[in-house]
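R.M. (postdoc): so does anyone remember the format we settled on? I'll just put the structure tokens first.
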């Protein structure tokens, strides 16, 4: 894992945007894995700003989102399709035919839908760069604690903690789904690069467990310890429980020097 600690959430977003930009500029047919939640909103703002300034084009980009609520109408403002439309897709030149979410509509079979999503990712050539947030309980996507580390796209029942963490996003009277389709942990592990963003003190404990705890299904994000190219971008608050901050800082300074001497190593 490469752990990079920034002074604030804005710098985390700028750094994540830099990863996306580098992929888009390097590969003619980039495949980007996207996340929802509050954390990546600032990343999407940054990408929209760069697009508007003419520095970035999404014309050839394909995207796969991590998750989507079960049986939700895509037009529902609470759907992750709507989230992506509002925060990114409608502002940039992406072809929405090339944007996918793991949907499962009323009457569709979650198992078949999960397998089809896996197939679609494979057909696109696999995910080059997967953006991730982290839940307060260590979940990635909607892979809740106890999710198999070998899991693939499937339906999951959300934990009470996740339902209550996300209840802030629902207005009174709005139905909050309790089940979702999500990429599995093995699906995420297949991405060539993974960039996880975590900001705020409410993530500090989960971040600590992900980085310094044992690899365990009880902290699904800890599976990233087994990923060859996992980059963790933190603000000071999210990093506050970590004990080796000086080492991470030093290692990153050394890495920067290596990049100056040899260029980026990223191999998409
Ligand atoms: C959500 C999503 C995750 C996200 C996490 C944290 O429920 N399924 O992909 O990373 O919870 O969200 P937030 O960034 O709002 O804290």
């Amino acid at each position: 894992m490469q752990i990079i600690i920034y002074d604030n959430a804005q710098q985390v977003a700028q750094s994540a945007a830099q990863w996306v930009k580098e992929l888009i500029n390097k590969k003619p047919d980039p495949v980007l894995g996207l996340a929802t939640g509050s954390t990546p909103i600032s990343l999407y703002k940054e990408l929209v700003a760069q697009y508007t300034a003419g520095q970035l084009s999404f014309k050839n980009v394909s995207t796969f989102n991590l998750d989507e609520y079960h049986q939700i109408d895509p037009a529902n403002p609470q759907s992750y399709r709507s989230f992506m439309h509002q925060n990114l897709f409608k502002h940039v030149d992406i072809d929405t035919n090339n944007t996918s979410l793991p949907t499962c509509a009323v009457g569709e079979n979650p198992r078949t839908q999960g397998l089809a999503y896996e197939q679609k990712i494979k057909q696109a050539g696999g995910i080059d760069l997967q953006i991730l947030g982290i839940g307060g309980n260590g979940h990635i996507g909607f892979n809740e604690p106890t999710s198999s580390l070998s899991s693939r796209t499937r339906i999951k029942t959300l934990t009470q903690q996740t339902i209550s963490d996300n209840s802030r996003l629902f207005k009174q009277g709005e139905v909050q789904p309790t089940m979702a389709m999500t990429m599995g942990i093995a699906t995420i592990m297949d991405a060539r690069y993974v960039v996880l963003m975590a900001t705020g003190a409410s993530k500090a404990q989960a971040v600590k467990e992900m980085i310094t705890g044992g690899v365990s299904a009880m902290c699904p994000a800890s599976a990233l310890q087994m990923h060859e190219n996992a980059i963790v971008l933190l603000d000071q608050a999210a990093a506050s429980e970590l004990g080796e901050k000086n080492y991470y800082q030093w290692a990153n300074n050394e890495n920067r020097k290596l990049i100056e001497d040899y260029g980026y190593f990223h191999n998409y």
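R.M.: ...and that's the designed sequence above, right after the tokens. Also worth knowing: The longest helix spans residues 9-26. The domain at 2-67+80-100+126-145+189-262 is CATH 3.40.50.1360 (Rossmann fold).
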